[in-house]
């Protein structure tokens, strides 16, 4: 990681990617954000920090994650499809990459506690893991409804030593958890560190989380060339907030490689509230402290969003994605619930890999692309494994896709 470090020309020093990003927060918090930015800019040049992080990636996460040539899938659909196996990481997804980075930074800044909100509990578990490892306290805010629905992740967080704080107002899901976490943060932004879970939020988080995830793209670029002698023709990743996609895209932005970000079309792309396709259907505005495409009502308040993949149902998107959409460097496309679930079961049967439903969106699009571009190479970022999704998948879709127990 040290050779090309964690560097990139974007964003500018105020955190803008073109017109997107920035920092729209109360002045008392801006002071804290500026401190985090300063510490991060220093630490990302510090070879001790970079070595410590790389050592954890190697020995704790199990990096580099392999690239796997999906021979059976390729044969069936006519292109050469490869997976970057982030599903094989410790804790089962790419999120551990940025959680470790944030936890180490917080520790070096002398913070005592990591806090975050979580929806399905994936970010909460990854952060609780990182907190346990580096020796920080951890408070995870979670809606009461989600606590009941995602119980195994709640148990994991408790075992890992985190405190799970229920959000009990409103609909008692992710939005309320964000409110509660923000309130908790404002009570003491000095000793607490709010570890944002994707390439979203005010500057420096979109930059910092992307930099921590860029390990995925850096490894993939080398591995793919070693395997095939070339760069891939196409790269596909799912986009919730956009961290796994930015992680892999970041190493290929200056190459002649087609990039595809897959948004969730949910149950119905034409009905607000039934999807979370932010860039496909949204407009530009400010939400959660940054400017980007978003799904908002007339008053600019976040709309209800939905996807069968709870990791993808976010009403905004990382600002760099909005920029990459406008300059047409990345194609943003959609996959609906039905297509994702068909791929969830299909991939499991044909390759013996149960993908996270989020990742199944990316694979489903790769299959479409394979039919359009036969004989091309397609690298998919397989962002996570599907262990967390098996009960839900069988209960709700098993019958349709031939799995009855
Ligand atoms: C959280 C999650 C996502 C979505 O987050 P991004 O920031 O868009 O990457 C995708 N896949 C998995 C497995 C996840 O857990």
TrEMBL record:
Under Enzyme Commission nomenclature, its number is: 4.2.1.20
What is a single Pfam family found in this protein's UniProt entry?
PALP
Would you tell me the Gene Ontology cellular component terms? cytoplasm
| PTM annotation (N6-(pyridoxal phosphate)lysine): residues | 95
Annotated catalysed reactions:
(1S,2R)-1-C-(indol-3-yl)glycerol 3-phosphate + L-serine = D-glyceraldehyde 3-phosphate + L-tryptophan + H2O
* Single GO MF descriptor: tryptophan synthase activity
Pathway named in the protein's UniProt entry: Amino-acid biosynthesis; L-tryptophan biosynthesis; L-tryptophan from chorismate: step 5/5
Annotated Tryptophan synthase beta chain-like PALP domain residues:
62-384
Q: Which PROSITE patterns match?
A: TRP_SYNTHASE_BETA
Cofactor(s) of this protein: pyridoxal 5'-phosphate
Q: Print the keywords alphabetically.
A: Amino-acid biosynthesis, Aromatic amino acid biosynthesis, Lyase, Pyridoxal phosphate, Tryptophan biosynthesis
What top-tier enzyme class does this entry carry? lyase
Q: Which family does it belong to?
A: Belongs to the TrpB family.
Q: How does it assemble?
A: Tetramer of two alpha and two beta chains.
Described function:
The beta subunit is responsible for the synthesis of L-tryptophan from indole and L-serine.
What name does UniProt use for this protein?
Tryptophan synthase beta chain
Task: Give the originating organism.
Answer: Sulfurovum sp. enrichment culture clone C5
